[in-house]
Automatic annotation (TrEMBL):
Topology in the lipid bilayer: Multi-pass membrane protein
Gene3D superfamilies: Rhodopsin 7-helix transmembrane proteins
One function term, GO molecular function aspect: odorant binding
Protein name: G-protein coupled receptors family 1 profile domain-containing protein
């Protein structure tokens, strides 16, 4: 039985099913490219368009940046393994990948909670919105939405990395904390309790926010329209992230040998594929309509300005010519 000091490399065995599909590297690269493009485009749009310098869109930019952070922790290594015959990862690299991937999931959840609170204040306490969402508070909310998950994941990694492992074979496409813990033939109850508490508290905060939002908004037609316009994109994003994380947790804890390896691989990577790709598209459609509408308004104002100028200047020129 190898001791902890002898295990310096892990082998990933989830790539057996990918050999059957020749287009897997190309599709993976395409997904990674699309994730980079849509997230960077949305971030640049928020930076360039001054009308989008509002708390909700600042949080959205942070969400997109986190999507890039998580994708960088998974796709380059995944592409490298797809093009290689040996699917190995060092011990340090394994724990770094665990840290990046799962801190990314927790940051996603935390930012969506902050966005839910922003919608709650904007709809349920509109007169206090500008007092609550001050610049320093926005910085505080952004800092907490990143620091708390990063500290949480640091604690999890520090506990897992101190275990004495009895094997080096990980049955996944990437390093995963529960898979490493199983190699030690033990269960870290404190880690499991900590992670469950983290997600459950966040879920309660979102539920509380939307309970009061819906109670406020669903009383009349105008309020319902306001709810659909301002909250539906965020609610869709939250449901996508929550469902993806739920499927991942169920797959990790209740892994079934009857399920095909291809299906298991898809479930394992779906939270690294759908949230960073779909969330920018959901908000991007809304921002595109907003920008197009504002540009049309600006164009019409410019056109009216030129029309007014020519209406005033042409008669004056004609009258001066007649005098001459």
């Amino acid at each position: 039985m190898p001791n902890r000091s002898s295990i310096v490399v892990f082998s990933l065995s989830g790539f057996n099913a990918t050999v059957k599909y020749r287009n897997t590297p190309a599709l993976t690269f395409l997904c990674y490219f699309l994730i980079i493009v849509v997230n960077i485009c949305l971030i640049l749009t928020i930076i360039i368009e001054k009308k989008l310098h509002e708390p909700m869109y600042i949080f959205l930019g942070s969400l997109c940046f986190n999507g890039l952070y998580g994708a960088t922790g998974f796709y380059p290594k995944f592409l490298s393994d797809l093009l290689s015959d040996d699917h190995l990862i060092s011990r340090v690299g394994c724990f770094v990948q665990i840290y990046v991937i799962y801190s990314n999931a927790k940051i996603d959840y935390s930012i969506l909670v902050v966005m839910a609170y922003d919608r709650y204040v904007a709809i349920c306490r509109p007169l206090e919105y500008h007092c609550v969402m001050l610049k320093q508070n926005i910085v505080l909310f952004l800092g907490l939405s990143w620091l708390v998950p990063l500290c949480c994941e640091t604690l999890v990694i520090s506990l897992s990395s101190s275990l004495e492992l009895c094997g080096s074979h990980i049955y996944k496409l990437y390093c995963e904390n529960w898979a490493v813990v199983k190699l030690a033939h033990c269960v870290l109850l404190c880690t499991a309790f900590f992670i469950i508490t983290f997600y459950f508290c966040h879920f309660l905060l979102v539920t509380y926010s939307y309970f009061y939002i819906m109670r406020t908004c669903l009383t009349g037609k105008e309020e319902r329209m306001k709810f659909l316009q301002t909250c539906l994109p965020h609610l869709m994003s939250f449901i996508i992230v929550a469902m993806c994380l739920l499927f991942d947790v169920l797959h990790v804890r209740l892994r079934s040998e009857k399920m095909s390896e291809s299906a298991q691989n898809f479930i394992a990577i779906q939270f690294l594929l759908f949230p960073p790709l779909i969330n920018p598209l959901i908000y991007g459609l809304k921002l595109t309509k907003l920008i197009i509408t504002s540009n049309c308004c600006m164009s019409s104002l410019v056109f009216r300005g030129f029309s007014l100028y020519f209406d005033l200047s042409v008669p004056q020129a004609l009258s001066s010519a007649q005098h001459c």
